[in-house]
Amino acid sequence: MRKIVSFVHVSLDGFVASTKGELNWVKLSTEIFDFVGARIAKTDTALYGRVTYQMMEAYWPTAADKPNPSNHDIQHSKWYKNVNKIALSTSLNENDLVNTKVISNNLTEEITKIKNTPGSEILVFGSPTATHSLMAEDLIDEYWLLVNPILLSEGIPLFKNIKHKQALTLTADKVFPNGVICLQYSKSNA
Length: 190
What we know:
The chain has helices at about 30-40, 50-60, 70-80, 105-115, 130-135; strands at about 5-10, 15, 45-50, 85-90, 100-105, 120-125, 140-150, 155, 170-175, 180-185. With about 190 residues, the chain is α/β, with parallel strands linked by helices. Strand 9 and strand 10 (about 180-185) form a beta hairpin. It is globular, with a radius of gyration of 16 Å. The protein starts with a strand and ends with a strand.
């Protein structure tokens, strides 16, 4: 069965965005871009909420075609064009989208069907509302947290809608020179 992996930047105090959804506090670097690029190269399916999906669609399909694209823009644009995409939305029309499945209801049933199809993991990028919906249904198997050295004091929390205590096991970690730490947690079998 395929895993659902949440991959997200988070503040040290547990927020994934400011109260207005801003991400200007996220610390990025070439090392982080390279790490994320190598990580997502193993993934054939990306899952987004509607807002994040529309943001990604507005930039990544043509990012490599812009003047003087970075290596990250070239690599991520190539990956994005080829990856299978899932969008959780009640307003998007699947017929208008390229290589995208839209899930608008029966979340657990639809995600379980996809998890039982051939392929690699399903990677959830950011998408706090979608992540919260998946958490409410206990559908996330792993968390990859890029913990940024900042305290926001308020904003959109990472963890919300969790129905019961869940034990997690730290399975990997990586410290970047800019102070960001990537922590990989998997659901414990206990």
